[in-house]
Amino acid sequence: MGTRVLARASHRASVVGRLSVRADIDVETLKREIKKTYAQVSTEPEKDFIFPTGRAWAEDLDYPDELSRVPDTAVESYAGVANPFSLGRLSPGERVLDVGCGAGTDSLVAAQMVAPEGEVMGIDMTTEMLAKARARSPADRRRPPVAPGARPETSPPRATPARDGERRR
User: Fold this and answer.
1) What is the spatial distance between Cα 127 and Cα 82, in angstroms, rounded to a whole number?
2) Mean pLDDT split into 10-residue runs, the chain, 169 residues
3) Distance CA 114, CA 120 (A)
4) Using CB atoms within 10 A as the burial measure, which of 17, 145, 156, 164 is most buried?
5) Which residues contact residue 127 at a Cβ distance below 8 angstroms, ignoring those fewer than 6 apart?
C-alpha cells in the first residue's frame, strides 16, 4: 500500500483574466511572520485571528465523526483551510503523511481511520505547533496514546513527487 499525503490547499478561484503585478517580497520575512502567527495559534488558541480556528471551525467543515475523539488540546489550535477527508475516508493499514500537520488534528483523525496497522506522520515548520502535537501523540511515551500510529516530525513543507502507486490528497 502506498502513502497518502494530506496537504493543506489554499482557496481555489477561477481565473477569468490575468493581471500581473510586480511585488518585492522578502521570503524570509514572510516565513518568519507565518511561523509567528501559527505559533500564537498554538500558544494562545483563545485569541481572535484573521482566520477561523478551533473545533467549531473543523465541525463547520464537516469533519468525520473521529473528530469527536481528538482531544481539545489538539483541536483548539486547528487552523486548517479545508477538510481533506471530504475527498473520502482513509483505509485501515494505509500510511499517511500529513504535510502542515499543525497541532495534529488531521493526523489524529487519520490515525483513527488507518488503525490498527496504518501509520501517520505529520510534518510542520512551526516548532510550537509540533510541540503541541507531540504532547498528544502516542510517540510521546509520557502520556497514554490517543490514536495509534500518529507521529509528528519537524520539517519545512516541500513539494515532492508521489511515487508509483501513491495517492495524494
Assistant:
1) 22
2) 58 57 86 94 95 96 96 93 95 93 94 92 90 69 42 49 47
3) 8
4) 145
5) 39, 154
Parent domain of 96:
3-7+28-81+90-154
Phi, psi of 39 (to 5 degrees): -65, -40
Q: What is the pLDDT of residue 61?
A: 97
Reduced to 3 states, what is the DSSP secondary structure of residue 120? strand
Angle, helices 27-43/127-135, rounded to nearest 10 degrees: 30
C-alpha cell at 51: 482566520
Which domain CATH number covers 132?
3.40.50
Beta bridge partners of 120: 96, 150
Q: 79 — phi, psi (to 5°)?
A: -140, 35
